[in-house]
Amino acid sequence: MSPRVSNTFDMAIGVIPIALLIALWQGIAMSGAAPPSLLPPPGVVFGRFLQQIVSPAYLEHAYVTLYRLFVGFGIAVLAGVTFGILMTGSKAVASIVRPIVRVLAPVPKIALYPAFTLTLGYDDASKIALVIADAMFPILLATYQGALAVEPKLAWSARAAGVSPLKTLFTVILPAAMPSVLTGCRIGLIISCIVVFLAEMITSTDGLGHLLVRAARNFQTVDMFVPLITISILGLLLNAAFNALRRYLLRGFPEEK
Hints:
Layout: H1 3-31, H2 42-52, H3 56-89, H4 91-104, H5 113-120, H6 124-148, H7 152-160, H8 165-176, H9 178-202, H10 208-217, H11 221-249
């Protein structure tokens, strides 16, 4: 089976659970087990979704959510990859960063959100900080473990050719550890999507999470489902785009052939 046919088959298989979930949703709505005021039919929700995605006001809220997501995720990638690589090449850096990771990695980062809001305010900064705190650790750990697994002879050869230790880390070790790094980044991206939405639900005056909470408070259940569908579709699109980028960056690796 060619890769293109295999990808098409996988995509078709992936649609089936979603179709079954929508069918179950429709069945419950039609059976009357849940009143329409609590569980509107999917056709009504998707109709409202199509109305909203062409509304400038709604798109502005989606833009705010994406801005917070991308800024937080971008900083998390930069920090996680940098510290993960430096831990591999420097015992001093590892001795400083490793205890911090052991203490903070298991902590639910949402518990830090009140502190972020008190110090950074209720606008973008506190939400971006929460995304960074949650997404950075899986990226850092994946980078560190991937760099440790790189064949030492690659670094020895670079050093023997006169390459500096720091340059060896970022031009030899990092490219060789790229599969593990990108796996950590993919996990971090998923976490970022969840965390930014959650932060907007807790304290925000804009963003998709805010729209969901506002609709729920006003018992507008149809409008409550629209942000959920939007963030789900955005997650699918971001995941597909990241997978395409991953295939491009890893085109020379054996596992990607």
